[in-house]
């Protein structure tokens, strides 16, 4: 898979916009969103956040897109916040939201979001990785929460990291401004897979290709249910999920999947 600036795409995005801080490419069944500020290690500011929100919305609405890949141009994923940029008005798109909105949009995406971590992911960049459904890192990638060293604290990314990293380990990371390599990030669950840099595209493609083989409506319903149960106690989650299962069973794809299983043939998904 070729990603980043200058990518060769199978077709243009469904809704081309005047992106300046990112690129949007459709490669096969995936939308590839690339942070394009390599001179600043793809540091993220309000305009880039806003463009990502528009791109995620476009990808979610494109029926041909089955998964979304988030990555960075050059040798970094995202080095954190871009303090040189103060407002979303630097771009040409109408204001859609800020960093909190961006993290929520990724977490609540109806299509799986895969972080392709090609290099440094610090601060806000680490938050983006933690918010994604999948994260594959090159073995050279570095991770950390260095905000405290400049008199700040990783407030918003704390919310997504706390759902992955054990409490005391996360406190240590944030209070000491720790940095770590890809293998330690994998041990903590921040990334799910670490591969040599030259194998990164193949690893991301393997995940995206497997997602493309699943029923799109089932994936959507499953992700929505996962988000809905995330903050519920067990007594509230189980009845809600029972209802969600009934909704899933009512789809044409569920009927097709069960029939294909009984007939020992591959299912033909209709997406409804």
Descriptive labels:
single chain; 272 residues; alpha/beta; 2-enoyl-CoA Hydratase, Chain A, domain 1; Lyase 2-enoyl-coa Hydratase, Chain  A, domain 2; 2 domains; six-stranded mixed beta sheet; four-stranded mixed beta sheet; 10 helices; globular
Give an overview of the whole structure.
It is a single chain. This protein is of the alpha/beta class. The chain has 2 domains: 22-212, 2-enoyl-CoA Hydratase, Chain A, domain 1; 216-263, Lyase 2-enoyl-coa Hydratase, Chain  A, domain 2 (Orthogonal Bundle), CATH 1.10.12. The chain has 10 helices and 10 strands. The strands form 2 sheets. A 6-stranded mixed sheet has the order 1-2-3-5-7-10, sandwiched between helices. The chain has a 4-stranded mixed sheet with strand order 4-6-8-9. Helix 3 (124-131) packs parallel to helix 4 (155-161). The chain is globular and about 60 Å long. The relative contact order is 0.11. The model is unreliable at 1-14 (pLDDT under 50).
Précis, in short:
The protein has 272 residues and is α/β, with parallel strands linked by helices. It has two domains: 22-212, Alpha-Beta Complex (2-enoyl-CoA Hydratase, Chain A, domain 1); 216-263, Lyase 2-enoyl-coa Hydratase, Chain  A, domain 2. The chain contains ten helices and ten strands.
